[in-house]
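Dear Dr. K.,

Following up on our conversation at the group meeting, I've run the structure prediction for TetR family transcriptional regulator from Rouxiella badensis. I'm pasting the input sequence below exactly as I used it, so you can double-check it against your construct before we proceed with anything downstream. Let me know if the numbering doesn't match what you have in your notebook.
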Amino acid sequence: MTDNALSKQLRHPPSGGYARGDETRQRIIESAIVLFGELGFEGASTRAIARHAGVNTPALQYYFENKEGLYVTCADYLAEESYGWFEPLLTRISKLENPDPDTCIEMFCLMLETVLERVLNNRAVHQRRLFHARIKMGQGPEKASLLFQEKLIDHVHRAGVKLVSRISGNAVDNERTQIRVLSLFGLATTFYTVKHPVFNADEEGRQFPAEQMALIKSNVREQCQVLMRSWMV
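The predicted structure tokens came back this morning:
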């Protein structure tokens, strides 16, 4: 079956019917994330994804309608999963009223450490990190990027803007504030595409080596502190 043939009417919509944790559906999503990450939207065929998931190609139509629907579902899955990591910290930041500079710096450092934990641990095989990066760069269907932006990136960015605005005295919608926030997150998001030599990218379920993680966190924290302190009014 070709990718175009998968555009027929669903027998079972992705958002209803079966439980979200359905084993077959979840296996397809996990396989699609790996192949979309490695090959991109155009390069990953539905046939290859089905083979990787150990299902027949019509199963993708049953759950996701077509390749675009599967890609968007993968983006939605990763956005919700990632937001779960950030939610406790975002809640803390939202409740801050007139925080002092040290608190602003500490909160932003914790956000960067959360990014690192998210991209380097939690079964973060190399292809999985690449899929994150592809979405952030706007590759694949636009709907996936917009959804990922709405469900995750906007929330995290707004929290960062609040902290940088407070410490610098510039407005939250000030262009300099926006650029500074992006530059700070860049300290951690560079690891989306880094393939560490001590890792086998095909193995899942392993934790990033603790010593290397501590070293990366320490380095990112140091740079974040230096930059934010240089912006203090």
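Two things stood out to me. Residues 1-21, 200-204 have pLDDT under 50 and may be disordered. Residues 4-67 form a domain with the Arc Repressor Mutant, subunit A fold (CATH 1.10.10.60).

Best regards,
J.T.
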